[in-house]
């Protein structure tokens, strides 16, 4: 039998319609609704019967319509009541343009009833187009939610503008009084909150709104004048009725204003300033979270943007805000306590177990915590935030992908529940028939398959949520030991307290008791608010637990106390440590091992922010990655002072990262030295580029005329010497630098005709700017200490040297020891072509050849004089100056390089381990000798870096103090042998090799 005699469809199309119907939730009603529509059109709207026929012969539209008839009684009702909707299709590519006609049509009528009809008519037409594409999975989730949100925006804009015109005709237009601007029309904005603000609206969502107007002063001037506040109160109430009243055509949207300041007890509309004062003075954490998604949706959008911009400090704290977690958890617990008692807890896709709200809460929590420092997280859509969390290394890509995939699934289930009859439903049916219907709407063949899929999704979401959103009460008791609790309970003046602290292993019990009191009560107790003091109390037990387990308890406690005193009221860092026990454990371990890293963290607790990123310690960062990160950080710096501060903060963070990787055994010593050297390279390159740009803007480019009379740009380079030149920089190392320019010939002036200066003066100022940028003290400290004494003529020489003068000096005037130093030279910043020229010029100095015997005598004499002046005292070990130490290895390699580079240019390398390998490959050193020297040098540099981490200063000597030696042994625990016998063995192995070549 034919589906409908009115349609005259082919047998193939009818068969396809039946097959499509069978895959829907209601196969028989689907075909019945088609027959009823065809019969109705044949008798009442024959002109539309041809349109329906055409749609059914199109395979895409045939699938859309049959899917709607079989899955959504609501959409079937819309088609039956307004069959003309078949003539057009929702313009999903540009929903704003699609809705523009609604605003124009509403403003073209004077009848309120007609406005209400137009709004509902357009709503149902839009819902049909969106629903058809959603049910057939043609539209991604963002298109569906974006289209629904755009419709709400348009309906609010149309309703607002019509009502303002209507009320202005009764009361006169609202006019604000402003001292600066005089009398002007009062501005009004509607803020969309929640899903509307994020453009994530459902098919049956309430729309959460806040009404704001600009100023209180002024009023209306018509025949029935009212205040500005009353005018907009009336407008707001009328808008609720206009959109939310149920008529014969249904409703447009339910409006919910409970998110406004003070909720249902607060004013319906507020002035912008009143709202700002409320949030600044009384705003709670849940209101901060709500404002993350706030968006101006109708009215004066500029007013809304100004308001939200002023609220940024309220929503996003300057530093990582782990203190917000407690309030967010309370919000979640309140929701859980309400819904978990209900029978639908495991069926509610929004608020229930593993539901949408758990994903949203996690995302908003991360935004509140990290959005103050990372402006990229200040976006509204959930999926976009998850992507940004990955970019910020706060979430791994696999976890983010899982949450996005499951979020889309749960939101689609929510839509399938609501599109059935346009009801605000969030729970899956209990009965098997209803459950099967939802499964069919989701595209599943049976209920069991869908049930398994849903269960797997919510289980995964809840598991991720549980791992990433730790319950606060669990943290307080982690590793809680009786010892920590007892020590915190003592009063400092109790005699028994001193015995207990001594028994716990602290060397100075009186001092330890005072420091423990700071852990418990916080610094300057009388000045701390009770809420702040409580945060110190919450962290006291886990903090002291870790101190008792630290490598050096006294050292850890002293640094912890300094850290607490430095924090003061900044409890967000205490909250961070409470929420992330691994970070607390790492922090205390650093406090108990390294004075250098402890100083960083005591003076700059904001460095802790880096420890919560997912890959801060994960891998070796090359120069390119560092440079990109530095560029991104500096792009946010607004002035020269901010640039200097950002450079130092970046350097401190990278040094901390390398120090932790070193102490944790995640990095080999060579990686640490290479990383510190590359960090210095990146910073110097950026400092030079900025200084060069500033001077060129003031004086023009420095140029000269070459031998052919052609104008050339005069280049500049920074030449690194010493450890930086050898890519062996250590913690706290100075930078040995030489500045060289390539200006020569005639016409050596800058190009600006009005402010031209000689190139020599230009480069002197450039060098001075670089020095100032590196050595200036800021609240984040200096970048580096500089040593410029290796330049030609030392301290008495000019700050910047021309390449011609540099080469003349090195060729005709330099001492052998200066050529020794030059073996470590490495051009690191400046014009690339000039850097290559400089490398070749330096190499030529060595490949011209030296008198080997003369070099040997001078190097050996220099070493003897140094040994006489710097022999370590009895009982001391000097890694650098002891016989067989660093200086012996360096002098030996430098001698062999100077003596043999003319015949073996491949041995040239500023990096000493590479130079040793080159000497071995060239046959100049025996393989066993090279291995001994390389092994010894590696141990010396490892120990030197450990000493600098321990002491917070450049240090090469180890005294007889047993406490210091014990601390160093702990820092060197990763070695296969005890550090002090290992050093002595290396000294003894190096001495005869040194003697063989330099003291035969």
Q: Could you say how many structural domains there are in total?
A: 5
What is the level 1 CATH name of the largest domain?
A: Alpha Beta
Note the total helix count. 43
Rg (CA only):
38 Å
Name the structural class. alpha+beta
What's the CATH architecture of the largest domain? 2-Layer Sandwich
Family: Belongs to the GlnE family.
Region (Adenylyl transferase): 484-1000
Domain Glutamate-ammonia ligase adenylyltransferase repeated: 64-309, 585-834
GO molecular function: nucleotidyltransferase activity
Task: Please sum up the structure shown.
One of its GO terms (molecular function) is nucleotidyltransferase activity. The protein is α+β, with helices and mostly antiparallel strands and 1000 residues long.
Explain the layout of strands and helices:
Elements (H helix, E strand, L loop, with lengths): L10 H12 L4 H18 L1 H12 L1 H13 L1 H9 L13 H13 L4 H24 L5 H31 L2 E5 L3 E4 L2 E5 L1 H4 L9 E7 L4 E3 L7 H17 L10 E2 L12 E3 H11 L2 H8 L2 E5 L1 H10 L1 H4 L8 H16 L16 H15 L11 H10 L5 H23 L12 H10 L5 H22 L3 H5 L5 H8 L5 H9 L5 H13 L8 H19 L4 H15 L3 H9 L1 H11 L3 H9 L19 H13 L4 H24 L5 H31 L2 E4 L5 E3 L2 E6 H4 L9 E7 L4 E5 L8 H17 L10 E2 L12 E3 H10 L3 H7 L3 E5 L1 H16 L4 H19 L6 E2 L7 H15 L11 H10 L5 H25 L5 E2 L3 H10 L7 H20 L2
């Amino acid at each position: 039998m034919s589906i409908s005699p009115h349609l005259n469809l082919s047998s193939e199309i009818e068969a396809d319609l039946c097959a499509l119907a069978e895959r829907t939730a209601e196969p028989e009603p689907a075909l019945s609704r088609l027959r009823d529509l065809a019969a109705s059109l044949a008798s009442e709207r024959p002109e539309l019967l041809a349109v329906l026929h055409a749609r059914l012969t199109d395979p895409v539209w045939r699938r859309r319509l049959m899917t709607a008839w079989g899955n959504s009684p609501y959409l079937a009702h819309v088609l039956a009541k307004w069959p003309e909707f078949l003539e057009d299709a929702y313009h999903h590519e540009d929903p704003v343009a699609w809705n523009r006609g609604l605003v124009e049509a509403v403003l073209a009528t004077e009848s309120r009833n007609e406005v209400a009809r137009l709004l509902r008519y357009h709503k149902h037409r839009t819902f049909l187009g969106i629903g058809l594409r959603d049910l057939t999975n043609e539209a991604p989730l963002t298109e569906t939610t974006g289209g629904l949100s755009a419709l709400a925006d348009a309906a609010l804009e149309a309703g607002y503008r019509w009502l303002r015109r209507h009320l202005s005709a009764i009361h006169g237009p609202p006019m604000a009084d402003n001292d600066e601007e005089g009398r002007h029309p009062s501005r009004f904005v509607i803020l969309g909150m929640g899903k509307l603000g994020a453009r994530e609206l459902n098919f049956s969502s309430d729309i959460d709104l806040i009404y704001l107007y600009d100023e209180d002063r002024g009023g209306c001037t018509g025949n029935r004048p009212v205040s500005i506040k009353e005018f907009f109160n009336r407008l707001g109430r009328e808008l609720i009725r206009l959109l939310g009243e149920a008529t014969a055509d249904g409703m447009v949207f339910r409006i919910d204003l409970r998110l406004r300041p003070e909720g249902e007890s607060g004013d319906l509309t507020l002035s912008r300033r009143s709202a700002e004062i409320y949030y600044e003075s009384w705003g709670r954490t849940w209101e901060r979270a709500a404002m993350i998604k706030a968006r101006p949706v109708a009215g004066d959008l500029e007013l809304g943007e100004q308001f939200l911009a002023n609220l940024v400090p309220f929503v996003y704290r300057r530093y990582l805000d782990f203190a917000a977690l407690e309030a967010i958890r309370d919000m979640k617990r309140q929701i859980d306590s309400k819904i978990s008692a209900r029978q639908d807890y495991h069926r509610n896709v929004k608020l229930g177990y593993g539901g949408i709200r758990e994903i949203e809460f996690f995302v908003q929590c991360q935004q509140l915590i990290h959005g103050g420092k990372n402006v990229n997280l200040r976006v509204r859509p959930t999926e976009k935030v998850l992507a940004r969390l990955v970019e910020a290394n706060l979430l791994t890509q696999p976890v983010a992908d899982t949450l996005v995939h499951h979020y889309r699934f749960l939101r689609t289930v929510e839509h399938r529940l609501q599109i059935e009859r346009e009801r605000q439903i969030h729970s899956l049916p209990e009965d098997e028939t209803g459950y099967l219907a939802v499964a069919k709407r989701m595209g599943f063949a049976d209920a069991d398959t869908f049930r398994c899929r849903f269960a797997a999704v919510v289980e995964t979401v809840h598991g991720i949520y549980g791992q990433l959103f730790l319950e606060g009460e669990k943290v307080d008791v982690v590793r809680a030991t009786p010892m920590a609790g007892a020590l915190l309970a003592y009063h400092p003046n109790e005699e028994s307290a001193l015995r207990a602290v001594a028994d716990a292993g602290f060397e100075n019990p009186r001092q330890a008791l005072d420091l423990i009191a700071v852990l418990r009560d916080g610094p300057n107790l009388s000045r701390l608010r009770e809420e702040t003091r409580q945060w110190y109390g919450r962290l006291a037990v886990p903090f002291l637990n870790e101190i008792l387990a630290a490598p050096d308890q006294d050292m850890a406690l002293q640094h912890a106390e300094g850290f607490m005193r430095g924090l003061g009221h900044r409890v967000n860092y205490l909250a961070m440590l409470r929420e992330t026990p691994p970070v607390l454990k790492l922090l205390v371990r650093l406090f108990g091992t390294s004075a250098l890293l402890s100083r960083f963290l005591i003076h700059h607790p904001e460095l802790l922010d880096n420890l919560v990123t997912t890959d801060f310690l994960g891998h070796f960062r090359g120069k390119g990655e560092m440079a990109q990160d530095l560029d991104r950080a500096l792009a946010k710096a607004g002035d020269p002072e901010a640039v200097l501060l950002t450079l130092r903060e970046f350097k401190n963070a990278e040094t901390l990262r390398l120090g932790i990787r070193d102490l944790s055994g995640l990095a080999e010593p060579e990686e640490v030295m290479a990383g510190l050297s590359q960090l210095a390279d990146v910073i110097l390159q950026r400092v030079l580029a900025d200084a060069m740009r500033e001077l060129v803007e003031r004086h023009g480019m420095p140029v000269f005329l070459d031998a052919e009379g052609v104008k050339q740009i005069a280049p500049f380079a920074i030449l690194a010497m010493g450890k930086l030149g050898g890519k062996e920089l250590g913690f706290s190392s100075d930078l040995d630098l030489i500045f060289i320019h390539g200006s020569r010939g005639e016409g050596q002036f800058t190009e600006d005709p009005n402010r031209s200066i000689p190139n020599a003066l230009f480069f002197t100022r450039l060098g001075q700017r670089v020095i100032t940028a590196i050595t200036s003290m800021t609240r984040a400290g200096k970048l580096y200490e500089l040593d410029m004494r290796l330049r030609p003529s030392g301290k008495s020489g000019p700050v910047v040297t021309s390449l011609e003068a540099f080469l003349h000096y090195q060729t005709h005037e330099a001492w052998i020891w200066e050529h020794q130093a030059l073996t470590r030279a490495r051009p690191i910043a400046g014009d690339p072509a000039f850097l290559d020229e400089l490398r070749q010029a330096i190499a030529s100095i060595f490949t011209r050849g030296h008198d080997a015997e003369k070099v040997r005598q001078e190097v050996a004499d220099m070493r003897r004089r140094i040994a006489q002046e710097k022999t370590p005292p009895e009982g001391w070990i000097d890694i650098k100056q002891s016989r067989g130490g660093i200086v012996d290895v360096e002098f030996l390699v430098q001698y062999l390089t100077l003596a043999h580079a003319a015949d073996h240019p491949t041995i040239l390398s500023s990096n000493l381990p590479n130079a040793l390998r080159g000497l071995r490959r060239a046959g100049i050193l025996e393989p066993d000798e090279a291995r001994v020297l390389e092994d010894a040098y590696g141990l010396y540099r490892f120990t030197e870096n450990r000493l600098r981490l321990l002491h917070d200063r450049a240090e090469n000597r180890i005294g007889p103090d047993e406490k210091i030696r014990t601390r160093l042994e702990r820092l060197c625990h990763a070695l296969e042998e005890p550090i002090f016998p290992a050093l002595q063995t290396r000294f003894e192995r190096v001495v005869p090799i040194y003697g063989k070549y330099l003291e035969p």
